[in-house]
Input
Amino acid sequence: MSYDATFRVWRGDAAGGDLQTFTVEVNEGEVVLDVIHRLQATQVGDLAVRWNCKAGKCGSCSAEINGRPRLMCMTRMSTFGEDETVTVTPMRTFPVVRDLVTDVSYNYEKAAQIPAFTPRPREADGSHRMQQVDVERSQEFRKCIECFLCQDTCHVIRDHEENKAVFAGPRFLIRLAELDMHPLDVVDRKHEAQDEFGLGYCNITKCCSEVCPEGIHLTDNGIIPLKERVVDRRYDPLTWLGSKIRRRRPD
Amino acid sequence: MELERHEYDVIVVGAGGAGLRAAIAAHESGARTAVVCKSLLGKAHTVMAEGGIAAAMANAYPEDNWRVHFRDTMRGGKMLNHWRMAQLHAQEAPDRVRELEDWGALFDRTPDGLISQRDFGGHRYARLAHVGDRTGLELIRTLQQRTVALGIDVYMECTVTRLLTGENGVTGAFGYWRESGRFVAWSAPSVVLATGGIGKSYKVTSNSWEYTGDGHSLALQAGATLVNMEFVQFHPTGMVWPPSVRGILVTESVRGDGGILKNSAGNRFMFDYIPDFFRKETAETEAEADRWYDDKKNNRRPPELLPRDEVARAINSEVKAGRGTPHGGVYLDIASRRSAEYIRKRLPSMYHQFKELAEVDITAEAMEVGPTCHYVMGGVEVDPDTEAARVPGLFAAGEVAGGMHGSNRLGGNSLSDLLVFGRRAGLAAAEHARSRPGPAPLPDDDLADAARAALAPFEREGGENPYAVQHDLQQTMHDLVGIIRTAPEMEQALERIAALRERVGNLSVEGHRQYNPGWHLALDLPHMLLVSECIARAALERQESRGGHTRDDFPATNDEWSRTNLICSRASDGTVALSRQPLPTMPAELAEVFEEVPA
Output
């Protein structure tokens, strides 16, 4: 049932670091996070790792396992051979704080920049009436657990630090799509999507959808429809004319 | 000493549902407010809540109203709940749910387009507002986005290690950044504790690492009192296999949506465990139970939907009697009762969880489940209307507060509790701050002492390993103060806790202060130990069985104890002192609710 596995874990901080090799016990049914915890408890008490729920619901334990962005709590050891070396490294898109912990503040900054949800008024009886089919489109994106693996894998920012200022990443493009499809929201964010959050940088390679642990179709159901609506808006001659007539030049 | 200092009107400790709701309320009433939380924003334990938010909105059943919800809550808590909290909770929950929609929440809908409500244990009507089986995520994300939209300051990955108090009550809090290990002090006349529960003191638990009882312990040390600490809820259905996922929650919605419990002989055993207290409202035959899902007027509830304490004890008994599954649980079967499409639609995250972690397809086969430590009913004793603790300026809301749920909490009543009392605590904390203008002074000696205590584990060499001490504490609570209790075992637990206290005094950690989990655990352990001692002492004292406290040596409920609360406080020598306190008297017009024939 149990066996000794070889783990290579990146250890270090912003100044640098390297992969360290450990031999560690693995038991039946365990996931990578269990093994990282065993390392902490028995060999390296100060090994830094983020985690919370250990059930794939909170999105804290994101890392790259054998180079692939994954949740450590949802990666079963049985997916590897017993003689296979398992390499665990921090998410590459974000600056390292220590060991497997990265500085994900980029994501919180982008979240704060998105114009807030603004609902239409309630109906006379104090309720909001919406049909299930209408809420389901946005519900798909609200399943997001903010693990930021889509951000990690997105090649627009993965090795292009300079794009972070102008590109919000797939997680926040689907947040914009979610708000755009939200039955109650009344704010139009299509211009911001294009001009401030960098929707045009995405060339729909669908890497984000591939790594999403929640199975959200970021590209097909979120980003592509949002791109289409932005295009409709921009190239519709009536809309264009209307925007020219109504818009006033800043003094 | 190097120290970062900040000044606010209200500091909220914890960023789960209660903490964020409190912060929003305090901010909106004009208080300079900050939230301090141990994890990243949006990762709090609330995210793991699955089933829904209980609120008598009457969208599914027009017969539902706050009086029925109040009655269900009090009966579920075996009448030990603070009546005023249960009343406020039932009355205000519908408005708290509705306002989430104004902040962007998208609940599942009824055919009329209203918020859909689902069945849960102990609730007479379908009343849980929900989003599939990920309602907690919706709640946390909605409150998180509202908090961000309002521009409230959030100190993420920052742990409070001490409350600071002066002659007139709270003056602030002291803590450290997890990332850098550097110290922070907040000066504030009001502090709201919203730190959640204590489950990490147990070996098998649905709770995350954050649930180390910080708020319970901080309050006690600051001079506040804890109530009902003997009542710990073991959720009947946690995963039991494989070992590494043992304890992870399997939502009660599985049973609310038609799932049944069976033993290894294939018997639907819950019919053998219907207590007299609930007999009149529980189905007697499988046929009646099955009809209830579609016709609640003419049929009674299936016994699988008895309150959690009853179901957990029943599962425990079946396994002990040798009728358990190969891995020591019982079967939870929805596969044979609902279509695969229905199951995937209603329970998507359960489907995913079993598929990924246990290689079980819940649309085709039964799950193996067993009890897991889930929730502590006990907590900081508060004023029901303001959530004020006995220390001026200190407030508590959510799981860290006590009284609302009595001896056992009904499923769905936790998320509504967070919203109702989080808001009330935030309002009262802002109000209190207005009465204390000017920054509260933080004496240098107090700050230096807090810093010294936090750094002590680095000073020692060759001391105890914090992970080993935590493991031994979890084993002790699991073995000796678990779901079924006896006096000799709890006396033994108290001896072991005393020995563990010696070891905690001798902890040492390796490495340095930057993001060091070993050090963080070393600072959480004293809280875990103090709370465990409160649980064990109160559980030993209460010589009866009720709700989340089952004594093998006192198996019946007792009238004397039905009128008595146990209060933990900090004695002058630092030990836990226990006292008895009469239950508050329910006014006559509320007592009448229990005479009404249920509709």
Summary: The two ends of chain B are 65 Å apart (CA to CA). Residues 517-541 of chain B form the longest helix (25 residues). Chain B touches chain A through 66 residues (CB under 8 Å). Residues 4-233+374-434 of chain B form a domain with the FAD/NAD(P)-binding domain fold (CATH 3.50.50.60).
